[in-house]
């Protein structure tokens, strides 16, 4: 039996129970625990600060950055409006190029398709390109249950896997780890699953990268099956695109005999020309680079070159439900750059694990509750895991209005879980409607309010109000009711009941 994250024998004394997001506490509870991890907070502040600065530098070089954002937004919006058309076009062109396209309604179906394809090859292991989609469907766990070892080859994913950990960042999954922790993980775990780390390994980044390269090389050379996701799927050519920084992905995409790509249906782009926009905004927003070091593009099968069995699994997994929400569908524009995480003050302090999802940070707070629903405490709490400062929208390369979607989803959570009772706001509005519906009721309420003035003595503010208004009043100075209402003042000052218009007119009388 192997654990889902590592493929390591679960009987080993150092191997813990595989983590899942089931039963995770709601965000405020999880965040409070993560805040106590001072090492993680220091690691996050350092790493996100560096990425923020790099992004700002390369974005500042472009005079047309906002035009690129608008173009990316427009392309994604057009794609989502006609998603069925572009997906069918992609299937036709990919099939014509020699690939086999599979459709998966949910995670269970996608995992079953992948497992069956791996078993057909007779292999009991796969090498993997970093993929958010496969993490979303928990493919590694499903493969492990089927007796298939899944080896992560991205350096950060390797660190997470060997550490029996979960990713905490979309771009840099091991952002919560420092070099000393990585060295300890390599020394302790590499020998259990392959080539061991050198005994004299230090925490120098070059030495750590070399240890990872040697450890992974033997897996690359023997693997018969590679599994990937895709950053983009181009409809008019049937091509898939993976961008990366290390080259490990290219090894997975070119060396194995069989390549299986799990691709969310929202990753499709209409035309080859559309890539020009996204290959500018993605690297600048994610790694702070003008262009990513490795861009791998493949179209079906090329005889004698690369994998000869190419499979593409198009994954829905509730994406069509998100698409049906005219407001919420904007989340499907996401290109997984992680720029919103790097500027979010909540993420920087709480870290990614507190979100209880493979999609942490602001984008996770709006995407996860739509993909998973709001049946659990953690999913109900995610739309509230934000200060609504708006920094996430400012940096988003496809202009997702994340603050607006957070408010939208907060409303949905409240509406879905109030048990048929009207919201306090709705009840208050109905009460105000009744009050303002009669001048006599309004006069009586004003009289009662002014009468209560004497109970406050010389105080200027009421202070905290108990009950439903406690949260509102605790952050605001609520003034005491006036000693005299405007209506009473008017009667006292202008007892004739008329209003005065501009000098020399009878406008006041007409009113």
In CATH, what is the class of the largest domain?
Answer: Alpha Beta
Distance between the termini: 85 Å
Shape: elongated
CATH superfamily heading of the largest domain: NagB/RpiA/CoA transferase-like
For the record, the count of structural domains works out to: 2
Please identify the structural class as seen in this structure. Answer: alpha/beta
Q: How are strands sequenced across the largest beta sheet? A: 1-10-7-4-2-3
CATH topology of the largest domain: Rossmann fold
The residue-averaged pLDDT reads: 89
Low-confidence stretches: 1-19, 501-511
Number of distinct beta strands? 10
Q: What percent strand?
A: 5-15%
Which sheet architecture does the biggest sheet show?
A: 6 strands, parallel
Named at the architecture level, the CATH assignment of the largest domain is 3-Layer(aba) Sandwich
As a whole number of angstroms, the C-alpha radius of gyration is 29 Å
What's the structural blueprint in terms of helices and strands?
Elements: H1 27-35, H2 38-60, H3 65-81, H4 83-96, E1 100-104, H5 107-121, E2 125-128, H6 132-136, H7 139-145, E3 149-152, H8 155-162, H9 179-193, H10 205-222, E4 225-228, E5 232-234, E6 239-244, H11 248-254, E7 258-264, E8 268-269, H12 275-286, E9 294-298, E10 309-315, H13 319-323, H14 339-343, H15 345-350, H16 361-372, H17 377-381, H18 391-395, H19 402-416, H20 424-436, H21 439-451, H22 470-473, H23 486-493, H24 507-510
Parallel strand pairs: 1-10, 2-3, 2-4, 4-7, 5-8, 7-10
Antiparallel strand pairs: 5-6, 6-9
Biased composition (Basic and acidic residues): 485-496
Keywords: 4Fe-4S, Electron transport, Iron, Iron-sulfur, Metal-binding, Repeat, Transport
Organism: Gordonia rhizosphera NBRC 16068
């Amino acid at each position: 039996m192997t654990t889902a994250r590592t493929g390591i024998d679960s009987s080993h004394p150092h191997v813990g129970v595989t983590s899942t997001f089931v039963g995770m506490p709601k965000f405020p509870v999880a965040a409070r625990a993560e805040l106590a991890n001072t090492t993680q907070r220091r690691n996050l502040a350092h790493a996100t600060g560096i990425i923020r600065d790099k992004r700002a530098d390369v974005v500042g070089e472009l005079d047309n950055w906002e035009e690129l954002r608008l173009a990316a937004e427009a392309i994604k919006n057009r794609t989502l409006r006609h998603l069925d058309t572009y997906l069918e076009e992609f299937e036709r062109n990919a099939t014509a190029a020699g690939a086999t396209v599979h459709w998966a309604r949910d995670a269970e179906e996608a995992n079953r398709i992948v497992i069956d394809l791996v078993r057909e090859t007779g292999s009991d292991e796969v090498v993997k390109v970093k993929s958010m989609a496969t993490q979303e469907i928990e493919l590694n766990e499903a493969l492990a249950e089927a007796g298939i070892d899944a080896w992560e080859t991205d350096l950060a994913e390797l660190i997470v896997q060997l550490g029996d950990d979960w990713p905490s960042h979309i771009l840099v999954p091991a952002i919560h780890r420092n070099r000393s922790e990585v060295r300890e993980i390599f020394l302790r775990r590499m020998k259990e699953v392959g080539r061991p780390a050198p005994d004299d390994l230090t925490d120098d980044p070059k030495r750590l990268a070399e240890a990872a390269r040697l450890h992974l090389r033997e897996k690359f050379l023997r693997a018969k099956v590679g599994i990937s996701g895709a950053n983009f799927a181009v409809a008019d050519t049937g091509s898939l695109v993976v961008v990366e920084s290390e080259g490990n992905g290219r090894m997975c995409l070119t060396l194995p005999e069989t390549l299986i790509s799990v691709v969310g249906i929202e990753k499709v782009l209409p035309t080859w020309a559309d890539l020009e926009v996204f290959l500018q905004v993605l690297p600048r927003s994610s790694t702070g680079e003008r262009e990513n070091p490795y861009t791998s593009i493949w179209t079906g099968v090329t005889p004698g070159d690369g994998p000869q069995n190419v499979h593409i699994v198009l994954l829905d997994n509730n994406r069509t439900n998100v698409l049906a929400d005219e407001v919420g569908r904007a989340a499907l524009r996401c290109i997984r750059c992680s720029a919103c995480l790097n500027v979010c003050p909540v993420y920087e302090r709480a870290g990614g694990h507190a979100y209880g999802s493979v999609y942490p940070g602001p984008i996770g707070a709006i995407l996860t509750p739509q993909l998973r629903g709001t049946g659990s405490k953690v999913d109900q709490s995610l739309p509230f895991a934000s200060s609504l400062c708006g920094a996430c929208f400012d940096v988003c390369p496809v202009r997702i209005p994340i603050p607006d979607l957070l408010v939208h989803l907060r409303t949905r959570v409240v509406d879905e879980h109030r048990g048929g009772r009207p919201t306090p706001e709705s009840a208050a509005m109905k009460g105000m409607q009744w009050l303002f519906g009669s001048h006599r009721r309004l006069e009586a309420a004003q009289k009662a309010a002014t009468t209560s003035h004497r109970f406050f003595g010389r105080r200027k503010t009421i202070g905290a109000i108990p009950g439903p208004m406690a949260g509102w009043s605790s952050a605001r100075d609520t003034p005491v009711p006036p000693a005299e209402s405007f209506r009473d003042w008017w009667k006292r000052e202008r007892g004739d009941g008329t209003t005065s218009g501009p000098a020399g007119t009878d406008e006041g009388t007409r009113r």
